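Dear support,

We are seeing what looks like truncated structure output for some complexes. This example has two components. We would appreciate it if you could run it in full and send us the complete token output so we can diff it against ours.
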Amino acid sequence: MAIITRVKQKEIAQLIAKGKRLDDRNLTDYREIKLEQGIIERAEGSARVLLGRTEVMVGTKIETGQPFPDTPNEGVLTVNAELVPLASSTFEPGPPDENSIELARIVDRGIRESKAIDLGKLCIEPGKNVFVVFVDVYVLNHDGNLIDASALAALAALLNTKMPNYEIEEGEVKIKPGYVPLLIRRHPITVTFAKIDEKLVVDPWLEEEQIMDARLSMAIDDDGNICAIQKGGSGYFSPQQILEAAKIAGEKAEEIGKKLGWR
Amino acid sequence: MSQKSEKLIDKKGLRLDGRKPDELRPIKIDIGVLSNADGSAYIEQGKNKILAAVYGPKELHPKHLALQDRMVLRCRYHMAPFSVQERKSPAPSRREVELSKVIREALEPSIFLEYYPRTGTDVFVEVLQADGSTRCASITAASLALADAGIPMRDLVVACSAGKVDDTILLDLMDTEDKLGVADVPVALMPNLNAMTLLQMDGILTLEEFEKAVNLALEGCTKIYSMQKEALKAKYVSVKEVEE
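Here is the complete output from our reference environment:
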């Protein structure tokens, strides 16, 4: 972990106690969100999200493969996250560590539990052949709140994803030229909080993450329902803080969703 | 997810195993069940059978992982290949890696880590048989194993899940309810501090349903907490009697 001086730690915490932040945001303000789609032509879908200085790229690929034995009629969604070493001095090359696995699973849960993708429509032959949607999250610059940036980028990439046309000839799947868009039914938006000195701040940037006691992420669907939650970090929340966060998350998801045209 | 769920709650409002919506499964807890570990605990919650063992505080290997100002807590949650219907590969899955992390983060706030700088403590959780809400039962057992190891703690950590099946909010989901239900909310609590150290959710809940599920899970935690204390007393009162 990068070193943050105790002076700065104190400064951040004192400002937050007064309802302010080092970068002039209010406690429930997001940093500026910039979104680009369709930037990687070789991918079936792609997107890049800038959340302040945090930058995440997501590419999707679609292949055919075997369904899971317990869901023979459904396509497969696979989310993977790479904390690429060029994104931060704290990221190291090598197999995915618990942080990247957790990140991928939080993004996965938001998409899966909100039923954003109709996996039933991705079945080609029950039990034998289905479409597999690979969502690869690629963190390019780490300045805090990778979860929200990755979830936004993953959804944006899925909205941009083309499905191959296919037909079945004598039991063989033949991919035909041309594409149809992948149907996305729901737009889950994940809102992350950091708890610093008993206060909740939305969209923590790196220095806030380094001094936070605990982290809480909530994915909110189009109707304002909660569809996934993950607490992280070695601190705790009071039940009141959890319910307060759930309320704020609903408002923030609505606000971001409207801004991006997803609500 | 929820195609077959109408069978999960009968007309009288009872669940597949005859429980009421706000009823826990039978729980059995034993402390100090492994002679090699510094602390250990065994829990049965319904068909869940889970062992937790603690080794430490001890010198940390590799040494560069040690921290100058506190103890490092490490946690491994692992499911035995025979613990589920289809054999599970013994290699750690991504789910197990994530659960190891959240279980560690659920236990850390309870421990006075700063009392043992430059050391490490390992918590090993082995799920011998799984029947839903294993992360919760694992936390309940692991916290007792830490207490059995004599590690100074602010409070015990106790965990319980709630969820939604059909239109009903249920306490302590078993496997079929988790798989076929609408949502699952595991929660861990330090009851004396009213501090929630684990919260996860998957499925879809309105804000009101979520609040109801969290409160139900917290009630469950309080009930299991008294069983945790009873189990500790049972073990240490008997030790005292032997000494006398």
